[in-house]
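Thread: Newbie trying to understand structure tokens

Hi all, I'm a second-year student working on a class project, and my supervisor (Dr. K.) asked me to get a predicted structure for one chain before our next meeting. I've only ever worked with sequences, so writing a 3D structure as a token string is new to me. If someone could post the tokens and maybe explain what I'm looking at, I'd be very grateful. Here's the chain:
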Amino acid sequence: MAELQLSTKHLLGIKYLNQDDLQLIFETADSFKEVINRPIKKVPSLRDITIANLFFENSTRTRISFELAEKRLSADVVNFSSSASSVKKGETLLDTVNNILSMKVDMVVMRHPAPGAASFLSNHIDANIINAGDGTHEHPTQALLDAFSIRDHFGELKGLKVAIIGDIVHSRVALSNIFCLGKLGAEVMVCGPPTLIPKHIESLGVKVSYSVREAMEWCDVANVLRIQLERQDIKFFPSLREYTQYFGIDLPLLNSLKSPVVIMHPGPINRGVELSSEVADSDQSIILEQVENGVAVRMAVLYLLAAPRSRSMMGT
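---
Reply by user tm_fold:
Sure, no problem. This is what the structure looks like when written as tokens:
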């Protein structure tokens, strides 16, 4: 694989990447997708790199996907969970990370409930930082795997219409997707109840709809988000039943559309709320492809960010 690298030392958010970065990540992910479908799925690309996974919020899919990507690249992996650490005793984020870095960690993958936590870290420590989700701010690798999955299906994103449907106001996935899709030339519409659409979101260059049928008739791809009840301290709609009635996507709706729409979801799916099981498991769904592509895309990001460090270790 060519010795190429990104324009940035860290992956803090999609807004810090340029179009060349995105294309390089996708081309590198293409190569790694071939690797993970071979009988022997490991390559020695990061065998001298130690990566710490710091998850200050619960995560299953993202944490496992990163860990699998790291092990496929032969990196040494350290897993950290705040629920079983000194964070519970009052240790600060910087103290926690400095303690881990004293173990000679080269890269840090971090999920944190505070927006800007990954950026804060990047200003204080030397390791490469990958933002695995910071509060309601960004989740860059999810947006990259979503865009990569669309590219896999359609060939390119330029000119495609993508509707992001659901809880936009609490979603870091939505913001990263808006940035990523815009840089790749896709048109974006957000759709949901007025209480779950941020004010002035049109300033990001997106359309807004409060009708799920209108959004589904308009789009080529629907990226459906779950209702993030854990981030809501007040009621944003009367009930889940009412939300499903007005914004849920079921098979009758899907079958009534004039053109087929590709269905995506970052997971976990609240089946029977934002998507019916029939839609989630239908031929139009690429949700399982997203999961597979997540490993390849995260391998690409890890490889590209570590490339300068790997070369310096080899004295080149």
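A couple of things are worth pointing out once you decode it. Residues 287-313 form the longest helix (27 residues). The chain has a mean pLDDT of 90. Feel free to ask follow-ups in this thread.
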